[in-house]
Amino acid sequence: MITMAEDPTTAEDERAVNADGEAEDALRTAFVPTFGKYFPESLVGALGLVVLALVATVPELEPTTQLELLGGGFYVYDLFALHMLLLLYWILSAAAVESPRVGAAFDRLATLLPTSQAGVIYATAVVSLALGWLNWAFGLIGGILLGQRLCQRAHEDGVAVHYPSVLTGGLLALVVANQGPSSLGALIAADDTGLANFMVDDVGTVGMSEFLSHPANVAPTLLFVLTLPLLLVWLAPDDEDAIDSLEDRDRVLEGSIAETLDHYAPVRDPVDWEPGDRLENAESLTWIIVAIGIASLGWHFGTGGALTLPWLAFGLVVVGLAVQGPPMAFREKTEDATRWANHMAIPFLLYAATFALLMEAELYAPLGEALAATGLPSVGAYVVAFALGLLVPDPGSLWLLQGPAVAAAGIEEVPALVATMYGAGVSNLWLAFLFASVLSIYGFDWREFATYAAAVTAYVSVVVVGLLLVF
Amino acid sequence: MSTIGSGEKVGRFFTQLGDVASRLIKRYLPDAFIFALLLTLLTMVIAVVVTDEGPVGVATHWGEGFWEVITFSTQASLALLTGWALADSPPIKRGLRRIASIPSSQTQAIFVVALCGQLFGLFHWGVVLVAGAILAREVGIAMAEKGIDVHYPLLVAAAYAGLLPWHQGLSGAALLLVATDGHFAEETMGVIPVSETIFHPINLVMIAAIVAVVVVLMPLMAPDRENVTTVPEEKLRAARGEGARDSDVGERPHRLRDSRLKAAVLDSTLVCVGVGAAIWAYLIYLFSTQPFMDVLDINVLITAMFGLGFLAHMSLRSYIDVFHEAIRGASQIIIQFQFYGGIMGIMVFSGLVELIATTAAQYATDTTWYALVFVSGGIVNFFVPSGGGQWVVMGEIYASATQSIEGTQMNYMMIAFAMGDQWTNMIQPFWAIPVLGIAGLTIRDMMGYVAVLFVFAGIVMGTGAIMIGVLG
To answer: Most CB contacts within 10 A, which of A199, A213, B308, B447?
Structure first.
């Protein structure tokens, strides 16, 4: 007689079923699908905002004007250039990072960093924050991949590392990504041509150097780069039983970072190349274009030209071409990188409608007055940006919606811009599931993520609000 | 007997012509992006050689000009995105499948796609690029399922040929622009209503001639059975529901599950149709209170298709998913358009455009002016394939020259310009990018066939431009 316990096949099946059940439970509680379950999609968020704007403007506008702006606000207020530049900002930034050359640089960096748990968490978070300040893609994509590489190395060294802390470290780039030279709000506000700056006629410009060097921006950013990683190290469990290692379902790396980012393979074998194939894979062509691009950039900045959103995008084209190598590799990566712009490409039409409705109804003035009436308008701008940012993942679109109210409040522009961008950054941390999802990451338990995000939000808010009150 | 013999000879000639052109293009033509890079370098060299600018000056013009067409590039991208989303909606696809089931031979299949492509192109260039490509794909699949061999690259080329009459049709950017109050050249040429351009009898005759060339030539180029390439296997699998969608966005981790409330909103017909109806309520008001052709411009067209998309998809989920695919398909317009802006910057700031247009005007008489506008428009379109963008840089010059050449008319000049602009699209791979994305082909597979059209349509349009001068 064979009992159930003696039946090896049945026992194995049971274990397999249990393992599957646990994996399914883990998947169900992972923060990316859990938060995604409730997040209504950017387009729905944008629809919600436009409906609110329609209701709010009923007393001010004729119904036909309201409906005209609902479908055509983007052209009535000529927001085409801003729309395109925001799209390119997301696409080109990703294309400038997701290449084997940049991957190799991250691989080299990974060999120099420590593999203890504290070392991995701290290094990942510092790199993510520092590079994120330069550009979101370098910090976010680079930080996440570097973190995984360090986890891999630690595993090889027999060191257990708490992956949730590492992933959170990689996501921290989102917090400071709008405070540096590729801050969308600042790049828009710096544009004196009006191409991206929709407020240039009414408000004028804010110089990028003014934004970058303002104490309310410099001080917290430096502090966060150095201390937010410590917060994560402090929050990470020491007990080996409580440590969750990097699981297969979240493993993005296939070999090294460079190998993972190696996306391009010519259609034909080089021995079968026709003249057309040779041109598609001619790195010399890339380098000629890059050299001309550098000359153009050199001329612009050498003659006192400002860093603005159009010129940053142009620079990203040049960098993207240089790091991708063959021109076809750049072409293919830009197609693939559109996945990073999905959250704003179409919703922008409805953000534009909301902006147009509020502008046409002249509601930004009372909104600004309400902000000023709080007595702490910059702090108010931070809080509003945080709340609004939970529906509007793109900081540039958020500046479109909130910027005119901030301007109407009559407060000092630079601290208000800093506050708005920090609000956008912190809200983006709560929307990190959207960005992690693009990399096919499921993440860890949502309660743990909420704890980290809440701790970071509290710390950042206290520091930013405190410094805004001082400066 | 002799009639059949000469018919066969003609067919044989065009088949061989198509084969030769296709082989040459496959060998020498690189991807459209590389083509744009090469064109950038070529423009730089020409500018250095024929203008007073030095290499550094020309390089700086590239950066300055990079964003020259950004507004139009966004309009073009939005028109494509909204057109794509509309064309990929269930009711439109059902209609396309119904059309796809009609043909029962290779010749009929190519004829049907070519004819529909022409109609789409005359309606809107964004629709021809998307609906035309989807139709070609569906016809290819339907024919494969019927066991009939059809040369798929030629089928796709037949759809793409819908771009040949586009600028003379309802979405003709320059023609719509000059019909818009406050357009940039209004002081020189005034506002020209579409009744004087798009719906002018001369324009309609030229359209008929172009359509005839396309629907006759394309089926004639069908290759012999041994040279036929049928629809790719992955497209067939996808059609049978065995393959993945082009976009994996629905599979992404954050979209694995929906709360009840989220699902209710995303799947609500009421919400989706309500938004579309609200957008269309204004458009109906607009069209009922003002003459249709006076208010129709590219912005209204985008709004109309954006609203129609909501109505046709009937759920936000479906609309969002299609947009994710559409953005991927539109990526190269988003990127490469800016490179053409750079080329335009070189051409405009170095004075190259002015040189071409003034040279054309210098040698023009009231009889030859329209032919010269057609040819020079065609040459510039090769470097600046955006019809509207090209008009932005050349419009003022053409308008001034038309004013100064006695006996010429602005509306005829506009028709000649539109013909020139659309003509060289047949040898410029830029607009083929979204078509190829949908069809799953490369530019090298298809371009040879439309290059043949370039020659024959050029003869027809060039003759037409001369005749306008002679008779006008």
So the answer is: B447
Mean pLDDT, to the nearest integer, of B431-440?
A: 80
- Residues B71-78 have a mean pLDDT of 84
Do B335 and A334 lie within an 8 Å CB cutoff?
Answer: yes
* Cβ–Cβ under 8 Å, residues B200 and B172: no
Which chain A residues are Cβ-neighbours of B56 within 8 angstroms? 295, 299
**Could you tell me the pLDDT band of residue B293, with boundaries at 50, 70 and 90?**
low
Contacts of A251 (CB under 8 A, 6+ apart): A148
Facing residue for A328 by CB, picked from B34, B63, B271? B34
Domain boundaries, chain B: 30-241+260-471
- Of B215, B212, B204, give the one whose Cα is nearest residue B418: B204
Residues of A with Cβ-Cβ distance to B323 under 8 angstroms? 43, 342, 345-346
Which residues 84-123 on chain A approach chain B with CB closer than 8 angstroms?
84-85, 87-88, 91
Residue A151 near residue A158 (C-beta atoms within 8 A):
no
The strand pairing partners of A445, in sequence order, are A30
Residue numbers of the domain that contains A423:
38-262+339-470
A71 CB neighbours in chain B (<8 A) are: 278-279, 282-283, 303, 306-307
- Report the alpha-carbon angle B318-B315-B129, nearest 5: 45
- What is the interface size between A and B, counted as CB pairs within 8 Å? 214
Q: How many CB atoms lie within 10 A of CB B160?
A: 32
Positive or negative, the Cα torsion across A322, A327, A332, A334? positive
B105, B148 in Cβ contact below 8 A?
A: yes
Into how many domains does chain A fold? 1
> pLDDT by residue (tens digit) across A290-333?
999 999 999 999 999 999 999 999 999 999 999 999 999 999 99
Give, as one character, the DSSP assignment of residue A292: H
What pTM was computed for the model? 0.88
Q: Sign of the C-alpha dihedral, residues A36, A40, A41, A45? A: negative
Asked whether the predicted pLDDT for residue B39 surpasses 90, the reply is no
SS3 label, residue B386:
coil
Backbone region of residue A304 per phi and psi (left: phi > 0; alpha: psi in -120 to 50; beta: other values):
left
Q: How does the average pLDDT of chain B come out, rounded? A: 87
Nearest CB to B73; choose among A84, A297, A433? A84
Q: How far apart are CA A187 and CA B114, in angstroms?
A: 47
Are the CB atoms for B30 and B37 separated by under 8 Å?
no
For the cut 50, the answer to whether the pLDDT of residue A246 exceeds it is yes
Q: What does the pLDDT read at residue B240?
A: 57
Residue A106 lies in a domain: yes
Q: Which of A12, A7, A53, A91 is nearest to A363 (CA)?
A: A53
Q: How far is B441 from chain A (nearest CA, A)?
A: 12
Cα dist. A57→A360, A361, A391 in Å? Answer: 9, 6, 20
Q: What is the pLDDT of residue B1?
A: 47
Is A81 in Cβ contact with B27 (below 8 Å)?
no
- Specify if A32 maps to a domain: no
Considering only residues B344 and B463, tell me which one the structure prediction assigns the higher pLDDT.
Answer: B463
d(CA B326, CA B123): 20
For B37, which of A91, A289, A441 is closest by C-beta distance? A289
pLDDT digits (tens, 9 = 90+) for B362-372: 888 989 999 99
pLDDT tens across B338-352, in order? 998 888 888 888 888
Residue with tokens 């030629």: B154
With a CB cutoff of 8 Å and minimum separation 6, the contacts of B441 are: B152, B153, B156, B232
Q: Which residues contact B469 (CB under 8 A, 6 or more apart)?
A: B365, B366, B367, B368, B369, B370, B371
Is the confidence at residue A43, as pLDDT, over 80?
Answer: yes
Computed over every residue of chain A, the mean pLDDT equals 93
